[in-house]
Amino acid sequence: MHAPEKNTAQMVETGESGTGPAFRSETVLPPDSVPEDKDHNEKDVSSAQYSLDEGDVLGLDVEHEIAPQANRLLSEIKELERECRWDAIVALCHPLEEKYPAIVESGLDIAIRKSLSFALVNAGRHMEAIGVLKSALRAEPEDYMVHYGIAYASYDALYRNKNRQLLLKPAEKQQLIELAHTHFKRCQQLSPGRVTPFYRDGMVFKEIEDKPRKAIPLLQKAVANWRCLSREEKKTRHQERPKYIRALYHLGSCLLKDSRPRKAHEVMAQMLNEDRDTDFVSPIFKHFGMAKVLFQLLKYEDAIKHLEVAIRASEADAKNLGGYVPDYVLELKAACLSRLKEPASALKVLKAIPEKKRRPYVRWREAEALVFMGKKEDAISVLNKALERDNRSRHKTLLRLSRIECSLGHFDAAILSAKKAAQFYRNTYGNPLKEADFLIAIAMFNKGEHERALHLMEGLKQDADKIPGFSKTYQKMRQRHNDFLLKDGVSHEA
């Protein structure tokens, strides 16, 4: 494995790491398409900002001849922790069995292992960190912090892999997912009133496995656990409040992905209210998140208001040299403007993104605005530019091309683009692309190949709920075909 330079375990959970596509709406064909949603993150959370807040590693106070040595070692480790000198901690006491065998033999090594494991995580040595705690688990199978440490090491490795800072083989990734779930769930059983284990277990489902529906009950439990605390308990456990706020943020995102925008709006509004004076979630992301919800609710003007707040926050952000505004914020603003029948304004917004830096989903929005303006040939040219650098979502660009070509009456070209999309998707992801077959059927039908098109549509009926606009399109096809047969029959009788 390649070890990254710093801890990034909180990158997605804060809504603040890396970059990612914003809404990508299917607005050309078919008409009933649903925008996609992906969270956006930035890498501004350093390892120094995170500590093992699930419990304090205290000095040992036991009557044992080895206790003074163990306490001195713990004291030295804690001093290095305050300075974030993770490599120094590793050099000091890893492997523990070789450097301090007497402490290990005495059984006074559990607290040391917890700190050593955390240092190994920050040094990017996750499997060693897990191994260190598995030894402790044999001695203390009911220790909350040992289970939490194993889960957290797995969690951090998975996030680093997601952000391309750590290479994991598929089997390694699956192993870490299972470890994270197993030990977070054990933490939930050992301490059912905490926020963190429910929140982070939910984040594994949401961000690592892309299973928002499974994340929802865990995030809801994290929120409920915080809300049921007394005022004094909240003061005592103040370190869990940021996770409560982030749980609200990600719960809203999951509800949106689960096609529950009204409930998502309610949750996002709660998050904005709770976080108004603290910004545990970046102002850029929380207002962008609300804008995505409002976009789905067709409240485009309200969405733009939140996007303007996100833009001002970006411009004021001292970490972003030159007041850089994230492209996904501008992309969503352009989407809103196009739907407000202002496609020229949408294009103007997108021009703020340097042409060479326009990622595929920005090109998609650019093409969409051109379609709204009736400049479909120009839209095709823009999408062809996207294909020049689109290696991950190439099939989506090709599907957009197919729709526009079909709307222009270029049915053979539409079929070819859809077939290319299907081939790319099959070669890259190993699965059939049903939407490509849907667009092929539409083009075939418009060519007059009714029987072939309807046969293809029959084969897609079982996936109708996954293909935007399928049911209405299928009904129209059947009606038009029946009308054609009736007309053809009348003409023969004449």
TrEMBL record:
Q: Which SUPFAM superfamilies match?
A: TPR-like
Q: Where is this region: Disordered?
A: 1-48
> Which Pfam families would you find in this protein's record?
TPR_16, TPR_8
Output the InterPro entries linked to this UniProt entry. Answer: TPR-like_helical_dom_sf (IPR011990), TPR_rpt (IPR019734), Ycf3/AcsC/BcsC/TPR_MFPF (IPR051685)
Q: Could you tell me the keywords of this UniProt record?
A: Repeat, TPR repeat
**Does Repeat show up as a keyword for this record?**
yes
Chain intervals with Basic and acidic residues compositional bias: 35-45
This chain belongs to the protein called Uncharacterized protein
Organism of origin is Dissulfuribacter thermophilus
Q: What is the lineage of its organism?
A: Bacteria, Pseudomonadati, Thermodesulfobacteriota, Dissulfuribacteria, Dissulfuribacterales
